[in-house]
Design a protein that fits this description.
Elements (H helix, E strand, L loop, with lengths): L7 H28 L1 H12 E6 L6 E2 L6 E13 L9 H12 L3 H13 L4 E4 L4 H12 L10 E10 L13 H4 L1 E2 L5 E2 L1 H5 L1 H5 L3 E6 L12 E4 L7 E3 L3 H18 L3 E7 L6 E7 L7 H7 L7 H4 L9 H11 L7 E4 L2 E4 L2 E4 L7 E4 H6 L3 H9 L5 H14 L28 H8 L8 H12 L3 E2 L5 E4 L2 E2 L6 E2 L3 H17 L1 H7 L5 E13 L4 E16 L5 E12 L3 E3 L2 E3 L4 H16 L14
Parallel strand pairs: 2-10
Antiparallel strand pairs: 1-8, 2-3, 3-4, 3-5, 6-7, 8-9, 10-18, 11-12, 11-23, 13-16, 14-15, 17-20, 18-19, 21-22, 22-23, 24-25
Helix pairs in contact: 3-4, 9-20, 12-14, 12-15, 12-18, 14-16, 18-19
Length: about 600
């Protein structure tokens, strides 16, 4: 017989266990509801609350007059969709209707269908509709016909940077490589847009708001976090009319010479104000994406972001150093031989001939390399001291360091300090005529301005005022005496009057002009040799009412072009660098309204 089993103790233990477990659950629930309740509510709200950043209206960019808008902000609609809210069977109809009213090509229509079929909560279909497309979508949203009505689509106005002026070349906007552009996030890229991003862009307005599962804002839940700050306007020193003329002149030369690029900068030699600044080819800043895909190198501004060996324009630095030190006189006789040897190496001119005994000023006018090399050697008692004097003049005139102009991407150039790395005789010779030294184009304009303005090195200026406040010019630095400056101006005048083809190519009756040409070979680093029959052509010169009052200095570059004629010291293009200078100088005269000089019988040279 089985004995009786008493279960009361077991039931009591089980009951106590249940009570303890229930107590623990109550305590845990109290912990989450009371102790962590605020945190949990905040976490839940955070999942519903989203931060919304609204870009400030970007500041405008004006030309020097303050009336021509070079860059501004307009609004275009972004087309968004809530694919998950659209019935799967209806997505194809919506895609077909959008393809019809937006006139989409096959590739774009296919991408649209793929986006809708993925069925996400929110998707951007098109970022910037044209006004015509926006009107078509808006009509479809209001269309009562179920076959055409578009559900769960939304038009969202978005600020878009616009460049309203056509450039001087087809399919370009004015001053594209100088201004740069803004990307989809509203951030400035290249040029003025990048340099003044913080000022132009301002500070965005930040809001938070709760959103439902479809991503739509829940009414009365918006909260201001940061009111933001609107962008400020900028007024440049650029003259829009002259800028357009310059771009047209450069485009004509670029096409005629079939060069890789043509660029120029026009600067007031006294104030440093940049009146025009352009490079061809340019691009349409309203459609920068196409250029970025096709050839992103065009987005870079060669005026300050590229360096090149300028060739014989650097002979003016030998003249500046020689006149300043007293080692060289304009009428000093120099022997021009076919070649000049330095051990196993030698230098020569393009014609491999010598002109015999010539004056220094004629040697520079006819751009004789041997004359420049022999003259550079006269700057000091030894090669080392001569190199120090020439390099010192480069440094005084800004070669080898940034000009400080207000744009992005400026490079300092490539120069060798003889105090750091000693120059051999061949180095001094080559550098006297612009090989073995690399500069940017603006540095040449700045240096030549000092040569002609009385000897003051001015900082180039692109900005006239920021946010309505005038920008103070940096005080110029005296680097040459007025007498040396006068001698250099006379030498530049001699260049364009003594040489027949230069005189024919640069003469403007009633006006004073002067300058120096430069033609340089181009080193192909990929092949380790000089490019065959391809050169960089430069001309840096001035124009004014009289030779004592230069109104503008112009730095011209025709890059990587093949000459059609090779003459004595003169490799000709269909439009030469000095002819291009004259065309630009005529535009400057017209734009600035410079009257012709009075003809004084007592001084016919004026």
């Amino acid at each position: 017989m089985l004995g009786r089993t008493d279960r009361r103790l077991r039931l009591l233990a089980l009951l106590v266990g249940f009570v303890l477990l229930a107590g623990m659950l109550v305590l845990r629930l109290a912990y989450w509801q009371v102790v962590r309740g605020a945190d949990m509510r905040a976490s839940a709200m955070a999942q519903l609350e989203r931060s919304v950043t609204q870009p400030s209206v970007r500041g405008d960019i004006f030309d020097r007059s303050g009336t021509v808008v070079l860059a501004t902000t307009t609004y275009r609609d972004l087309l968004a969709a809530y694919p998950a809210r659209i019935d799967a069977t209806d997505r194809e109809r919506v895609a077909s209707e959008l393809t019809r009213i937006l006139e989409l090509d096959v590739e774009t229509s296919t991408k649209l269908r793929e986006t809708l079929q993925r069925g996400g909560e929110y998707a951007v279909l098109f970022r910037a509709l044209t006004r015509r497309q926006s009107d078509a979508v808006r009509a479809a949203l209001d269309d009562p016909d179920p076959a055409r009505h578009l559900d769960w689509l939304e038009l969202e106005p978005q600020p878009v940077r616009a460049y309203p002026n056509e450039g001087g070349a087809p399919n370009t906007t004015l001053a594209s490589r100088l201004l740069g552009f803004t990307n989809r996030e509203g951030e400035g890229q290249y040029g003025i847009e990048q340099r003044f991003q913080d000022l132009l862009g301002g500070r965005p307005r930040v809001m938070t708001a709760q959103r439902d599962v479809s991503g739509r804002v829940i009414a009365d839940t918006e909260r201001l976090v940061d009111a933001g700050l609107p962008g400020s306007d900028i007024r440049l020193t650029i003259d829009a009319g002259l800028q357009l003329m310059l771009e047209k002149e450069l485009y004509a030369a670029w096409v005629a010479d079939r060069s890789k690029l043509a660029s120029a900068v026009v600067m007031d030699p006294v104030t440093g104000e940049i009146l025009a600044w352009a490079s061809v080819p340019g691009y349409d800043a309203n459609d920068y994406g196409r250029t970025a895909n096709d050839d992103p190198s065009i987005l870079i501004d060669p005026v300050v972001s590229e360096v090149y060996e300028p060739g014989s324009v650097m002979k003016m630095f030998v003249a500046a150093a020689g006149y300043d030190s007293g080692a060289i006189d304009p009428k000093m006789k120099v022997m021009d031989t076919p070649t000049l040897k330095f051990g196993t190496e030698k230098v020569s001119d393009s014609d491999h001939k010598g002109m015999g005994l010539v004056t220094f000023e004629d040697g520079i006018a006819y751009s004789r390399n041997i004359v420049a090399a022999r003259s550079a050697r006269l700057l000091g008692k030894t090669v080392r001291s001569s190199a120090a004097v020439l390099y010192g003049m480069w440094d005084r005139l800004g070669i080898g360091r940034k000009t400080g102009v207000e744009t992005s991407g400026e490079v300092a150039g490539l120069v060798v300090d003889p105090a750091t790395r000693q120059w051999a005789g061949i180095d001094l010779a080559n550098r006297s005529f612009g090989q073995g030294v690399a500069v940017n184009q603006l540095q040449l304009a700045q240096a030549f301005a000092a040569m002609i303005n009385g000897g003051r090195l001015v900082r180039p200026r692109l900005v006239a005022d920021l946010a309505g406040q005038p920008v103070e010019a940096v005080a110029p630095v005296e680097v040459l005496t007025p007498d040396v400056s006068t001698e250099l101006r006379e030498l530049m005048k001699h260049v364009v009057t003594a040489v027949p083809w230069y005189r024919k190519g640069t003469e403007i009756p009633g006006y004073a002009v002067g300058g120096k040409t430069g033609t340089a070979q181009i080193w192909d680093s990929t092949k380790g040799k000089w490019m065959h029959n391809v050169f960089n052509f430069s001309f840096i010169g001035y124009v004014g009412q009289t030779r004592d009052t230069p109104a503008a200095v112009v730095a011209v570059r025709i890059g990587q072009a093949k000459p059609r004629v090779a003459g004595q010291g003169d490799l000709q293009l269909k439009i030469t660098s000095y002819e291009l200078f004259r065309r630009i100088a005529v535009d400057i005269i017209e734009t600035l309204g410079i009257p012709p000089q009075e003809r004084i019988r007592a001084d016919p040279s004026r």
